[in-house]
Specification:
Blueprint: E1 44-49, H1 64-73, E2 78-81, E3 88-91, E4 99-100, E5 106-110, H2 125-134, H3 146-150, E6 169-173, E7 176-180, H4 188-191, E8 220-226, E9 230-235, E10 253-258, H5 262-271, E11 279-281, H6 287-294, E12 303-316, H7 324-333, H8 336-342, E13 349-351, H9 377-386, E14 393-399, H10 402-416, E15 421-427, H11 432-436, E16 445-451, H12 461-465, H13 469-472, H14 486-496, H15 501-517, E17 521-532, E18 537-538, E19 541-543, E20 548-550, E21 555-556
Parallel strand pairs: 1-10, 1-11, 14-15, 14-16
Antiparallel strand pairs: 2-3, 4-5, 5-7, 6-7, 8-9, 9-10, 12-16, 12-17, 13-17, 18-21, 19-20
Helix pairs in contact: 7-9, 8-10, 14-15
Length: about 550
């Protein structure tokens, strides 16, 4: 999932992607209530965003900002309670986190009674079935791929608009929904926490224009929506706290304003005057402001440093840089201190040595290369010598932003020291991933970042390193290192069949090590995203699933 212009969970955030590190708590920011005890009621929360949401239609949304906003409007089968020190999966529309068959190919959910839409009608299992079926329509594109990958018959189904239903989703009664999967999926109930696994009442579905007309069963409903200008949410008077274990309904309105520059938003919230006092941002603090704002003690109580479930990395194209010794030399030569500096310094994240982030199921701590993040030049030169001292020229693909170009300069400087000449290829940020994911456009080195869709390695390593997917998805290839290692592919297949989560996580840890043994990628940083709010905003929860400031308990102080 992405935290910015980019959609998918190869989601990228204009200069960084976002999605998985769980379990860490944020610095600063009150996630509880005000000193007086209960959160304040009433008032308007203003949300300042540099751009409109890619989508709010729950079956199309695949950015972190859009997903976070949808939590206020729609409810999903399961969801994350993030009031504790680590996220906990709970039933949302469903009474619990679902029941799986012995082989994890059939999942059953029972809906809560009395969950109501904005018109007072009750949410039913057929509404959830219809919502999930919308995933399959070509008019409703952009969302995650899991429904079509996993539901029996999904590869041939074309959605509900021709009047056809998907037989693998059954609703034996008004409150029960059953999914039949074509393979065991032990963490399917974490998938169902994504926005698309929600109810859409057929009578209110407006197809491809549903983005601006999403029908609410959450605490807030759309009052008005002028694309690229403003979205106003107001209370859904039929929402009931007694049926919702995740959200509260504290403010009267949420007013989302679009179109200001990132740095201008930073300065406005920092100044904390007028409506800025009751404002918050959803896009991260600009890289140019990060170090200064992160270290400003006066902002501490309203600064949120949120660990992303994600990784910032340099992919080495294993089909172009064929010599393992040369790839290992690159691992030792890259200076992660200058690289991290380009992204904003220590506030941006800890140095990475693995492709799985701490907090992701399957993460295993190891380091196969330099103990010093600045690299080990002597070891890198020794490996180049063993490779016959080649003097190759290599291309590096980056986005055409100041942050990324500084990053490319840091890589170029490091590699020139071991005799590798680097040519920088800046690509327009708005089309960066569609360019590098097309197999016609191959570079020796490619910047990438990735955020897990939920905190499990199953949403990271198989997508990024299953070499068999390269041919299958030539225009949407996520394997930027073009790794096609039979050992990795075998571990992917083995892990997919495991229903025991501990066993499966061990297999993913092993897979991560094999990928680094292949020197296919240089992990750079485990990403953090930093946001601010005004001094009169309370109840913000650092959401480590989406790496967003969650608004589910937000209130304004009077």
């Amino acid at each position: 999932m992405t935290r910015s212009t980019r959609r998918s969970r190869t989601v990228a955030l204009t200069a960084s992607a976002v999605m998985i590190a769980l379990g860490a708590t944020a610095c600063g920011g009150s996630s509880g209530s005000s000193a007086g005890g209960a959160p304040g009621k009433g008032g308007t929360l203003t949300i300042l965003d540099k751009a409109d949401f890619d989508h709010l239609d729950p079956q199309r949304v695949y950015t972190t900002e859009g997903s976070s906003m949808d939590e206020e409007i729609v409810r999903t089968l399961t969801g994350w309670d993030e009031t504790g020190s680590t996220p906990k999966l709970v039933g949302d529309l469903a009474t619990d986190t679902g029941t799986q068959s012995k082989d994890a190919t059939v999942w059953t959910f029972h809906l809560r009674h009395g969950v109501k839409y904005q018109d007072g009608t009750e949410v039913t299992a057929p509404d959830v079935k219809y919502g999930v079926e919308r995933f399959f329509s070509s008019d409703i594109n952009g969302g995650p791929p899991y429904a079509s990958q996993w539901l029996v018959g999904g590869s041939d189904y074309k959605g509900p608009y021709q009047g056809k239903e998907l037989a693998s989703i059954q609703t034996p009664d008004k409150y029960t929904i059953v999914f039949h999967l074509n393979q065991p999926v032990a963490d399917f109930n974490e998938t169902t926490a994504m926005p698309g696994w929600s109810a859409v009442p057929k009578a209110h579905d407006t197809g491809s224009t549903y983005d601006t007309k999403v029908w609410s069963d959450g605490p807030y409903m759309i009052k008005s929506y002028a694309k690229n200008k403003e979205l106003v949410l107001t209370r859904n008077k039929f929402w009931s706290q007694s049926t919702d274990p995740i959200r509260q309904q504290n403010v009267d309105q949420m007013d989302v304003k679009f179109g200001q520059d990132e740095a201008a938003i930073d300065q406005q919230i920092k100044a904390d005057a007028g409506t800025a006092q009751t404002s918050i941002q959803q896009w991260p603090i600009a890289g140019s402001d990060l170090a200064q704002l992160a270290n400003d003690p006066s902002l501490k109580s309203r600064y949120y440093k949120i660990p992303a479930p994600g990784i910032n990395y340099l992919a080495i194209n294993t089909t172009r840089v064929k010599d393992l010794k040369v790839r290992q030399a690159i691992e030792y030569a890259v200076d992660k201190t200058t690289v991290r500096g380009a992204f904003g310094g220590s506030a941006y994240g800890d140095y990475a040595t693995t492709m799985l982030s701490p907090g992701i199921g399957g993460y295993k701590k190891f380091n196969l290369y330099s103990a010093n993040p600045a690299g080990n030049l002597a070891k890198a030169k020794e490996l180049m010598k063993q490779a016959g001292n080649p003097k190759p020229s290599m291309s590096i693909a980056v986005e055409n932003t100041p942050t990324q170009e500084h990053f490319a300069d840091a890589v170029k400087t490091a590699l020139e020291r071991i005799g590798i000449h680097v040519n920088i290829s800046p690509i327009d940020a708005s089309s960066y991933f569609s360019t590098v994911n097309n197999t016609k456009n191959q570079y020796d080195l490619t910047w990438g970042d990735w955020i897990a869709d939920w905190p499990n390695a199953s949403t990271v390593l198989p997508t990024l390193f299953d070499g068999r997917l390269i041919k299958r998805n030539p225009q949407a290839n996520q394997d930027l290192s073009y790794l096609n290692d039979p050992k990795v592919n075998a571990l992917i297949d083995k892990a997919a069949k495991m229903t025991d989560v501990k066993q499966r996580n061990a297999a993913y840890g092993q897979m991560d090590q094999q990928i680094l043994k292949d020197a296919a990628v240089v992990p750079l940083t485990y990403m953090n995203f930093s946001d601010m709010s005004g001094s009169k905003v309370g109840g913000v929860i650092p959401d480590t699933i989406l790496a967003e400031p969650s608004l589910v308990h937000v209130y304004v102080k009077h």
